[in-house]
Amino acid sequence: MSKKGKVLVAMSGGIDSTITALMLHNEGYEVVGMTMKTWDYSSSGGGKKETGCCNIDSFNDARKAAVEHGFPHYVLDIREEFGGFVIENFVDEYIAGRTPNPCVLCNTHIKWRALLKRADALDCEFIATGHYAKIRQHDNGRFVVSKAVDETKDQSYVLWGLQQDLLSRTLLPLGPYRKTEVRQMATDYGYPELAKKSESYEICFIPDNDYRGFLKRRVDGIEQKLSDGNFVDKTGKILGKHTGYPFYTIGQRKGLEIALGKPVYVTNINPETNTVTLGDEVDLEKNEMIVGKLNFIKYDSITQGMESLTKIRYKDKGSLSNLYLENGKMKVHFYENVKGIAPGQSAVFYENDDVLGGGIIQSESVF
Fold first, then answer.
1. Which of 53, 103, 124, 204 is catalytic?
2. pLDDT higher than 70, residue 1
3. H helices then E strands: how many in the chain?
4. Residue 109 predicted with pLDDT over 90
5. For this structure, is 106 an active site residue?
6. Whether the predicted model's global pTM rises above the 0.85 cut
7. Cα–Cα distance, 116 to 352 (Å, whole number)
8. Is it the case that residue 50 has pLDDT exceeding 50?
9. What is the CATH topology of the domain spanning 6-130+173-195?
10. pLDDT value of position 55
11. Which of 30, 150, 232, 327 is the most exposed place for a label (fewest CB within 10 A)?
12. What does the DSSP assignment read for 194-256?
């Protein structure tokens, strides 16, 4: 038994998870590699081959690294767990007029829980992934997620939903490194092809990046049912017909297929009336929102009026705000207007580089 302990590493076959496994192996951990098959893209009817974590080449790349370095590797089929929860939620959220973030949901409810369950079965003390973020134990005893050194790759935003029992057993070795350093490690370990491997930024079950096509294939007759809805302005005046409200997102400007003589943006989606409101860019600006389905990380709650840098989307730099906890939901008041608050997306609260917690945006303003 290793003095460092036994760790189950999620290996997608990409550079980050492979280097994570090799780093831990070299540091003296007893490593077990596991590749999770979440989705069979051929069943979706898309026009592009499987990419990322769900293709056989990636499985083989992960297994090859494990075999060459002398640690076991397994493939875990979680398609049923994944599809029954993440994909159904993805579809339901768009039908409800919201914009979901399936990666957050998958991390929170599927991948980490699936890993921890198998880690227990294999007598592993830890689980590890190739996410760019840090975990440490705070003076108060709680485990805290913090931003990675490489802020251009930082993934702390998508980890806000992890609970303390998961964080206490998670290792994130890449947090202190920049992507350029990780690529150099791949070359140093003898995997120059990994260093050059392109990265996938699409949702894993939509590798062609066409979520509208995915919805059409998943929901029979969605176009016929919803295409008779109206584009309206903020006064309710009808501007034209849209192709179905689930095919639009808050802040969208391109692909509206309506000419109004000026740039317009989607500012509201109402599934009950099947209307999509269009407005000027300034109409996207709000200074308050309500966030539900909260998970606290650094502290077990917040003090009323606590200051936070709040991010409303993955690539958002964040905006200063005050937080107020009311009836299990978070009222967020921004110091200055922010643009494009989208119900269904994640809001993540930061204290300096530490994640205070996060939740799901429920409304763009306080009613």
1. 204
2. no
3. 11, 17
4. no
5. yes
6. yes
7. 29
8. no
9. Rossmann fold (3.40.50)
10. 63
11. 327
12. HHTPPPP-S-TT-TT--HHHHHHHHSTTHHHHHTT-EEE-TT--EEEE-S-GGG--TT--TT-
Q: Is 53 a catalytic residue?
A: no
**218-276: pLDDT as tens digits:** 888 887 777 789 999 999 999 999 999 999 999 999 999 899 999 999 999 999 999 99
What is the topology classification, in CATH, of domain 285-363?
Elongation Factor Tu (Ef-tu); domain 3 (2.40.30)
* C-alpha 310 chain-centroid distance: 16
Report the C-alpha gap between 259 and 358 in whole angstroms.
Answer: 38
Q: Which has the closest alpha carbon to 113: 185, 177, 169?
A: 169
The Cα 146–Cα 132 span in angstroms is 10
Token pair, residue 184, equals 């150099």
The active-site residue out of 54, 103, 106, 124 is 106
On the question of pLDDT at 201 being above 70, the answer is: no
Q: Which residue has the tokens 């996060």?
A: 358
Is residue 53's pLDDT more than 90? no
